[in-house]
């Protein structure tokens, strides 16, 4: 998280009065994350997360996200439902933004997951995909493949201020991904689409919570696994690939088995797509983050470098990676 929108103690007290959650004791902005504004809120009755939805989350999509969370919680997955106020309303407005009060889940986000922990996360992702088999909600992926070219063009030549040649290199990589993307050749379902280690709260080697469903959408199941693989199995710089962590994540997902031959063939291009998606969203943020926001921008090149593992041949032909 981050804090883009500031909430006064008075406004928060009035907001909490709509709920049966006790009275405000303290509220602290959470510096982690980049997408939404988040506060850790303690009341006389417990601990909560207050989220104010920013830039990439459209208010009209919130009913989909909350329905998905309710569906997953009802199936026993450790996801945090939004709290309803005394009138049964979960989606509110606060400080001019859409806002929800969310159940706090215990656990810590890992920065250096072990293979055992990655295996547990892979298992949890598979459980999520099984649990949505009867979920009827549908949402096009607003950060999916169709959005990458327009985002590249919106970033424009400013990308070259991050690394000389980055605009054209991203464009070349995108040409390849657009030509080879499997589209309907493999299964789709509701996916998390952002299952980074910071969105999995771990209790030792056990998954205690899956959070941050605000990119959830209907897309390729295996693309979700490719995103998680790219997020979990590299160090923070994107230089070092922890292959054992990635292998354990996939084995956990497949529950000890392996992907089908068709899935195995599709995986690298989906992972290259994941690299492009997060390079682009980070690059946009790098170039456009407001100066007064409490947020640590994430390095776009850390994601870009992962391409060297997923498509070494392509990487060797790109100025920014060769
Ligand atoms: N339900 C929850 N229970 C406990 N902690 C939470 C919960 N939701 C969020 N957090 C804490 O807040 C931090 C930021 O949350 P989150 O990842 O949802 O923010 P974001 O801005 O959407 O981030 P991202 O950059 O991953 O998209 C998490 O890393 C976690 O520490
Ligand atoms: N998890 C993403 C932020 C969501 O777009 C990142 O680390 O870039």
UniProtKB/TrEMBL annotation:
A biological-process GO annotation: threonine biosynthetic process
- A single Pfam family, by name? APH
**Where's the Aminoglycoside phosphotransferase domain?**
27-249
Drop me one GO molecular function for this one: homoserine kinase activity
Keywords for this protein: Amino-acid biosynthesis, ATP-binding, Kinase, Nucleotide-binding, Threonine biosynthesis, Transferase
As its record notes, the protein acts as a catalyst of: L-homoserine + ATP = O-phospho-L-homoserine + ADP + H(+)
Q: Which family does it belong to?
A: Belongs to the pseudomonas-type ThrB family.
The name on file for this protein is Homoserine kinase
Organism, scientific name: Sphingomonas guangdongensis
């Amino acid at each position: 998280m981050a804090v883009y929108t500031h909430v006064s103690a008075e406004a928060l007290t009035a907001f909490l009065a709509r709920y049966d959650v006790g009275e405000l004791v303290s509220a602290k902005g959470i510096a982690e994350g980049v997408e939404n504004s988040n506060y850790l809120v303690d009341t006389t009755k417990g601990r909560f997360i207050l989220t104010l939805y920013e830039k990439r989350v459209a208010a009209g999509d919130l009913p989909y996200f909350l329905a998905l969370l309710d569906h997953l919680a009802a199936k026993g997955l450790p996801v945090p439902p939004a709290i309803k106020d005394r009138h049964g309303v979960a989606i509110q407005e606060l400080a001019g933004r859409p806002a929800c009060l969310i159940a706090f889940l215990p656990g810590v986000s890992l920065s250096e997951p072990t293979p055992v922990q990655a295996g547990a996360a892979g298992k949890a992702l598979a459980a999520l995909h099984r649990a949505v088999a009867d979920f009827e909600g549908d949402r096009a992926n607003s950060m999916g493949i169709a959005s990458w070219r327009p985002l590249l063009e919106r970033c424009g030549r400013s990308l070259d201020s991050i690394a000389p040649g980055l605009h054209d290199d991203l464009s070349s990589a995108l040409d390849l991904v657009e030509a080879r993307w499997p589209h309907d050749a493999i299964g789709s379902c509701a996916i998390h689409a952002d299952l980074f280690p910071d969105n999995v709260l771990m209790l030792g080697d056990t998954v205690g919570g899956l959070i941050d469903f605000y990119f959830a959408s209907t897309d390729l199941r295996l693309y979700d696994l490719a995103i998680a693989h790219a997020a979990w199995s590299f160090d923070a710089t994107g230089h070092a690939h922890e292959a054992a962590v990635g292998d354990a994540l996939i084995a956990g997902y497949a529950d000890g088995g392996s992907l089908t031959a068709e899935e195995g063939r599709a995986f690298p291009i989906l992972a290259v797509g994941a690299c492009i998606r997060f390079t682009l969203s980070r690059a946009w943020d790098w170039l456009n983050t407001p100066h007064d926001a409490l947020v640590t921008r994430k390095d776009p090149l850390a994601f870009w470098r992962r391409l060297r593992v997923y498509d070494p041949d392509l990487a060797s032909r790109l100025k920014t990676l060769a």
